[in-house]
Amino acid sequence: MSEVKVKKETNLSDPVEVENRIKELCQQFPHGITDQVIQNDLPHLEPQQRAMALNKLLSLGQLDLLRNSSGLLYRMKDSQSTGKMKGSDNQEKLVYQVIEDAGSKGIWSRDIRFKSNLPLTEVNKILKNLESKKLIKAVKSVAASKKKVYMLYNLQPDRSVTGGAWYSDQDFESEFVEVLNQQCFKFLQSKAEAARESKQSPMVQRNSSFATSHEVWKFICELGISKVMLS
């Protein structure tokens, strides 16, 4: 018979128990919790008590305060981020968290401003400071050559940012693509000619003239033009 777990009632008169319950909620929802989540879980907790508990956890560096379109979010602080951001103010920590959440796809400065709710001049100042500390980096995106996205310094940019094999330093490799086009055409043309010369039925000739993507990829690799893996 499976064990039934009963939620332990939080002693609302004990600030430590309230703080522990908020931390438990943050662990249950690693992407963050809103004020409403805490209210739903602790409906009889006074607003002043809730604010005191949250401020205590924030001041101890156990929670991060984030913003999104729904408002404020409270999230358990990552121990690695804590060490990296030691000595930074709350605004700098907030911008770092926004960039960290964007992952390897990065984020535009405009979106950082929206999510952090900070003035553009302040965001630009913080970005320069984080770049100088080698905590973040700016990467040109193929989606908009004149704009940059920001991501954590140690991340490898996503293919959607770099453009993958068709791009080099965010510049489209037109000559490389033209060579590939020519060689692919020659390969398919040779397949069609071989099918016609086989003197078999029209249907067999038609089917044998086709080539799979794997066959084309293998042909290109054997020529030594590209070493890109087939996804």
Automatic annotation (TrEMBL):
Q: Which GO terms describe its biological process?
A: transcription by RNA polymerase III
Keywords for the protein's UniProt record, in alphabetical order: DNA-directed RNA polymerase, Nucleus, Transcription
Q: Which Gene3D superfamilies match?
A: Winged helix-like DNA-binding domain superfamily/Winged helix DNA-binding domain (1.10.10.10)
Name a GO CC annotation attached to this entry.
RNA polymerase III complex
Its chief place of residence is nucleus
Q: State the source organism's domain of life.
A: Eukaryota
Localization (cell): Nucleus
InterPro entries, per database record: RNA_pol_Rpc34 (IPR007832), RNA_pol_Rpc34-like (IPR016049), WH-like_DNA-bd_sf (IPR036388), WH_DNA-bd_sf (IPR036390)
Which family does the record claim for this protein? Belongs to the eukaryotic RPC34/RPC39 RNA polymerase subunit family.
Self-association and partners: Component of the RNA polymerase III complex consisting of 17 subunits: a ten-subunit horseshoe-shaped catalytic core composed of POLR3A/RPC1, POLR3B/RPC2, POLR1C/RPAC1, POLR1D/RPAC2, POLR3K/RPC10, POLR2E/RPABC1, POLR2F/RPABC2, POLR2H/RPABC3, POLR2K/RPABC4 and POLR2L/RPABC5; a mobile stalk composed of two subunits POLR3H/RPC8 and CRCP/RPC9, protruding from the core and functioning primarily in transcription initiation; and additional subunits homologous to general transcription factors of the RNA polymerase II machinery, POLR3C/RPC3-POLR3F/RPC6-POLR3G/RPC7 heterotrimer required for transcription initiation and POLR3D/RPC4-POLR3E/RPC5 heterodimer involved in both transcription initiation and termination.
Q: Which PANTHER family match?
A: RNA POLYMERASE III DNA DIRECTED , 39KD SUBUNIT-RELATED
- Please explain the role this protein plays, according to its UniProt record: DNA-dependent RNA polymerase catalyzes the transcription of DNA into RNA using the four ribonucleoside triphosphates as substrates. Specific peripheric component of RNA polymerase III which synthesizes small RNAs, such as 5S rRNA and tRNAs.
The entry's protein name is DNA-directed RNA polymerase III subunit RPC6
Organism of this sequence: Scophthalmus maximus
